[in-house]
Design brief:
The chain has 955 residues and is an alpha+beta fold. The chain is built from 31 helices and 31 strands. Among the domains are: 192 residues, no CATH class; 213 residues, Isoleucyl-tRNA Synthetase, domain 2 (Alpha-Beta Complex), CATH 3.90.740.10; 63 residues, Ubiquitin-like (UB roll) (Roll).
């Protein structure tokens, strides 16, 4: 504080200052904790014996899980937490039973990497980080029910994460019933013969391993050898979303390769249609819904079989089956399992030299190309590269409609992650196929009539012609002709032909792939799976949960040369032989087993945490059904149930949100919960940004040390650049909430973050502007408390008409804004009212002072509590009723109507806001100024927009 401010405080010892704010805030935070002010009663406890409380509508409000970073919070982190707190407080004051709490998503790679670097156990550093964050969050006055808080690393929590995994493992998706069912019911179908086994043998004739393999094709959680993103430099497999666009690990920037490894997967694809359709009933931003729809990627088309020989065929999925007569070659993804089955020992006679890549045999060509493709990310492979690469497999397939032999290539522009990992190439009508055909001198056939004057010889074209608004040509055989048909009709006709001949069928395909659920890490949930001596996976019984994470000496996965794509993972858990190799009795006597040594991904714990908030101490079941039904069950306007408000960043659109929706649907299908969706309403807050200053080397310099002189920015005498970006410790521009709280108080910080702009818009941080909200609180305090004596100055007198109107307009506007999460405009209305009261002078009437305090209570709860208590109230302000506006004072007695002639204002009329168009027109035409301006001219038209505008158009 400046000397001037210090002198002012001495002259006014009871002025609201940072020191006073610190005292007030600490006292009320202690009070809230001691009194359990924010504890939300559950229907099986307090609500059952309190009819008045039970009659209240409920509101379940959630923030996205924070990760306990060692750097602690900067002022950008609590933006969403403050917003949900303001909203929750307003909901309590408007008669709701509010559940609002916060836990920690504490498993994950950052803590593990820190452990590797320092030797500190991940639990030690994570718990230390959580304690620091709890202190920072508490200082902000967040009204959380702390009884319900937890961390995903607690064994009591991840016991149920493991339990849910087992429910998914022990389930399959019944497409006829369109829901998940227990695997035990599937076994019954096989045993009874209702469902035949793949090879027709009786179920009991299959060995245990064969039965396990059959069930693995149905289970919603299954292990398989699948193409994965392998990062030798990290020693772990990564999800697609953890790989950057240039094919490197998001964390560590190591090269990422494609490799086949035994991994656990979740069959999320079984729910693709439901995940897509149920978006319609959710109150989510359209942009997020669109991202999920695109990620799921539903497309209608046909599966077509291209025979290679009598025993082998290649299946493709295409959305343009109408162009089948134009397919002149095929392309498989380099990882496609069919490649090994079709490559011959030698190149066929007459093979084009360009097709071989200069290799003496197909096997050598394929091996070399696969190594080349493995070094690229999926994003790189899909990019429109100038040069197309690939190699001939040496095999030919047969086009089922033309009977022609077409060469089969592998190329990196085809991915296993879409369709079947194989395409029929129609180069005349697909840009990538066209470029590939040109590069490898492959034939092209026009089967869709171009709408321009290019003709029908593709060899003369500069690019492919692709259109749905065209007719088919050159598309007939002895049994069917598509010539002259439009695309839609041609697709239907060829699909019927393919189905009738048993070489294809109409189908729906999804871009969505099954969820890779294994990580070669230490700091994650252990899988509750053991393997017998035959390698068959067995689930642990519930009585053996939680399977706790064991101690290990080395927390890091074994890393390799980052460029060694042939390396194989070695997990930290695999080094603890005493834990891995165990003797267990799973119901048929003691036997030797080997534990799964991968761990679950960091997404697992956040897939269901909303349910744990409801019933955090339940050690008997996932969640009490009555409690879950009360807080999350379906109701009017929320047909699939879910959390009433979920606030977090848009970056989680297709990962956390999609995964959590999948887990909810499985649990719903199995009867464990009533809600089929986890989050009914989603709100994405913006980001608090900050200026980043960089020197001539491009290195960030401390923002606090930068000076602005003559329109430029300087650090240590050197001119530096400035750009608006993220806030963070590494960018040296982070401002901590602790700094602002020390300088101004937590209520000021809360007000400033909410006043910066609309919540869903990113905005730049400006520490210099914080003082504006500090002064608002000082004026508010001064309107109620005498700064010299500390006495309350309100009086029991009736307010004037102007003050009543200002008050009730503010009550009406602020209430609507808080309900609509328009916190910046709510603060503006409170400021306007407070300024009106300041200018009015004299002591405030109690009937004005008390509503004023209640209005600001959700936004600045500490000072509101203090003023409420000083106004003589014994109860906390938290559960007081929010003020209700008197409609008589909300509507203006008169409004100003502008009268224009030829676009120029000629008169202003003070009129009733309820005036009709006809009455307003008559008043405007009779006004002296209007009559004079018209000067006797006739009137061609009068446009009336009561009560604000009249526009007169002279003849």
């Amino acid at each position: 504080m400046s000397e001037t401010n210090s002198a002012a405080e001495t002259a006014a010892p009871h002025r609201y200052t940072a020191a006073m704010a610190a005292d007030i805030e600490a006292r009320w935070q202690d009070f809230w904790d001691a009194e359990g002010t924010y504890e939300a009663p559950n229907p099986t406890g307090d609500l059952a014996g309190d009819p008045e409380l039970a009659a209240k509508p409920k509101k379940f409000i959630m923030d996205m899980f924070p990760y306990p970073s060692g750097a602690g919070l900067h002022v950008g982190h609590p933006l969403g937490y403050i917003a949900t707190d303001v909203y929750a407080r307003h909901q309590r004051m408007t008669g709701h039973n509010v559940l609002h709490t916060l836990g920690f998503d504490a498993f994950g790679l950052p803590a593990e990497q820190y452990a590797v670097q320092t030797g500190t156990h991940p639990r030690t550093s994570t718990e230390s980080n959580m304690e620091n964050m709890k202190v920072q969050l508490r200082r902000l006055g967040l009204g959380h029910d702390n009884r319900r808080s937890f961390a995903t690393i607690e064994a009591e929590y991840y016991k149920w994460t493991q339990w849910i995994f087992l429910q998914i493992f022990n389930s399959w998706y019944d497409t006829e019933a369109d829901r998940a069912r227990p695997v035990a019911e599937l076994v019954e179908q096989f045993e009874s013969g209702e469902r035949p086994t793949p090879d027709g043998r009786e179920w009991n004739a299959l060995s245990a391993a064969e039965r396990a393999d059959v069930l693995g094709e149905y289970r919603l959680a299954y292990a398989s050898d699948a193409p994965v993103n392998w990062s030798p430099g990290l020693g772990t497999v990564l999800a697609n979303e953890e790989v950057t666009a240039d094919g490197r690990s998001e964390r560590g920037n190591f090269p990422v390769f494609k490799a086949k490894l035994r991994q656990w997967n979740m069959r999320i694809t079984a729910y693709a249609d439901r995940l897509l359709n149920d978006l319609d009933g959710l109150d989510w931003p359209e942009a997020i819904k669109l991202q999920q729809r695109n990620w799921i990627g539903r497309s209608e088309g046909a599966r077509v079989e291209f025979p290679v020989d009598t025993a082998v065929g290649i299946t493709v999925f295409t959305t343009r089956q109408d162009t089948l007569f134009g397919a002149t070659y095929m392309v498989l993804a380099p990882e496609h399992e069919m490649v090994e089955r079709i490559i011959p020992a030698a190149w066929p006679e007459g093979t084009h030299p360009v097709w071989t890549g200069g290799h003496p045999s197909p096997a050598e060509a394929v091996t070399a190309y696969r190594k080349q493709a493995a070094a690229k990310s999926d994003v790189e492979r899909q990019a429109e590269a100038k040069d197309k690469t690939g190699v001939f497999t040496g095999a030919y397939a047969t086009n089922p409609v033309s009977g022609e032999k077409v060469p089969v290539f592998i190329a990196d522009y085809v991915l296993m992650g879409y369709g079947t990992g194989a395409i029929m190439a129609v180069p005349a009508h697909d840009a990538r196929d066209f470029a590939f055909a040109r590069a490898f001198e492959l034939p092209m056939r026009c089967v869709v009539q171009p709408s321009d004057d290019r003709g029908t010889d593709p060899s003369t074209w500069d690019d492919a012609f692709s259109s749905y608004d065209a007719t088919l040509v050159n598309s007939s055989n002895d049994e069917i002709s598509l010539d002259g048909l439009g695309v839609v009709e041609a697709k239907a006709r060829i699909t019927e032909w393919l189905t009738r001949h048993g070489v294809g069928e109409g189908t729906v395909n999804f871009r969505l792939r099954d969820w890779l659920f294994s990580r070669q890490r230490y700091w994650g949930e252990p899988f509750p799976i053991v393997y017998d001596e035959e390698g068959i996976a067995h689930p642990l019984p519930e009585s053996m949960l939680p399977l706790e994470l064991p101690e290990v000496e080395d927390y890091s996965p074994r890393t390799f040369d980052p460029e060694d794509a042939s390396a194989q993972p070695e997990t930290p858990l695999s080094r603890n032989a005493d834990w891995v190799n165990v003797t267990l009795d799973l119901g048929d006597g003691p036997k030797k087993y080997r534990r799964e040594t991968n761990t679950m991904p960091n997404w697992a714990g956040s897939c269901w945490y909303e349910l744990r908030y409801l019933d955090p101490n339940n050690d008997r079941q996932l969640v009490d059904p009555q409690i879950e039904q009360y807080w999350m069950g379906p109701r009017e306007g929320q047909p699939t149930g879910g959390v009433d408000l979920y606030v977090g960043g848009a970056e989680h659109a297709v990962l956390h949100l999609l995964y959590a929706r999948f887990w909810s649907k499985v649990l719903h299908d199995l009867g464990h919960i009533s809600s089929a969706e986890p989050f009914h309403k989603l709100y994405n807050q913006g980001m608090i940004q900050a200026f980043v200053y960089r020197d001539s080397r491009g290195i960030a310099v401390p923002a606090a040390e930068v000076e602005e002189r003559d329109g430029a920015f300087h650090h240590d005498g050197e001119k530096v650049s400035r750009v608006l970006g993220k806030m963070g410790k590494s960018l040296k521009n982070a401002v901590t909430p602790d700094e602002i709280c020390a300088e101004y108080g937590a209520d000021t910080l809360r007000l400033y973050e909410m006043a910066m702009g609309p919540l869903d818009v990113s905005r730049p941080w400006d520490t210099r502007a914080v003082v504006g909200q500090y002064r608002l609180l000082q004026r508010l305090w001064r309107n109620v408390i005498d700064e010299e004596t500390g006495e309350v100055t309100v009086v029991d007198a009736e307010p004037g008409e102007d003050t009543l109107r200002a008050l009730h307009k503010a009550i009406d506007g602020v209430g609507q804004d808080l309900a609509g999460m328009r916190f910046n405009t709510a603060i503006a209305k409170i400021t306007e009212l407070n300024n009106h009261l300041t200018k009015a002078g004299g002591p405030l009437p109690r009937s004005v002072a008390e509503p004023l305090v209640l209005l600001i209570a959700p936004l600045a709860p500490h000072v509101a509590e203090e003023l409420w208590r000083r106004l003589g109230h014994g109860d906390s302000v938290v559960h007081q009723d929010f003020p209700v506006a008197d409609p008589a004072y909300v509507v203006d007695e008169t409004v100003t109507c502008v009268v224009q002639i030829k676009g120029k204002v000629r008169a202003r009329l003070e009129i009733s806001p309820s005036i009709t168009d006809e009455e307003l027109e008559a008043l405007a035409l009779a006004d002296e100024a209007v009559v004079a301006a018209l000067g006797g001219a006739g009137i061609r038209k009068v446009i009336v927009r009561a009560p604000k505008l009249v526009n007169i158009v002279p003849a």
